């Protein structure tokens, strides 16, 4: 089965990287899903939540404050202004 190589970085820190089967994100033009074999593209990332389906493990939800992402040869690079893996904000406030 084909996989995506995904890397997420924020302006000031590394967030996550690994193999995934799907990435869903919100762009300035609307929501998009990326699967292995997707055509190359560059898009502006809108504020909101991204979902990543890792090859192993549970779905990751990542909150982003904007940025951009690129897709090329089954490699997805997300550069966000700020990004946090979901659930970490509520855990800090308890």
Helices and strands in order, then pairings?
Layout: E1 4-10, E2 14-27, E3 30-34, E4 41-45, E5 48-54, E6 60-64, E7 67-72, E8 75-80, E9 83-85, H1 88-93
Parallel strand pairs: 1-8
Antiparallel strand pairs: 1-2, 2-3, 2-5, 4-7, 5-6, 6-9, 7-8
DSSP helical segment count:
1
Mean pLDDT across every amino acid position: 90
How many DSSP-defined strands? 9
Biggest sheet features: 9 strands, mixed
**SSE topology string:** EEEEEEEEEH
Write down the overall geometry: globular
Structural class: mainly beta
Amino- and carboxy-terminal Cα gap: 40 Å
Q: What proportion of the residues form beta strands (DSSP E)?
A: over 45%
Q: Over the alpha carbons, how many angstroms does the gyration radius reach?
A: 13 Å
* Low-pLDDT stretches: 87-94
Helical amount? under 10%
């Amino acid at each position: 089965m084909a996989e995506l190589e995904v890397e997420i970085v924020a302006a000031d820190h590394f967030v996550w990287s690994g193999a995934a089967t799907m990435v869903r994100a919100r762009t300035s033009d609307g929501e998009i899903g990326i699967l292995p074999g997707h055509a190359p593209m560059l898009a502006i990332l809108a504020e909101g939540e991204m979902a990543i389906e890792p090859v192993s493990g549970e779905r990751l939800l990542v909150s982003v404050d904007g940025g951009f992402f690129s897709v090329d040869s089954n490699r997805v690079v997300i550069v966000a202004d700020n990004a946090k893996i979901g659930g970490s904000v509520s855990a800090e406030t308890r």
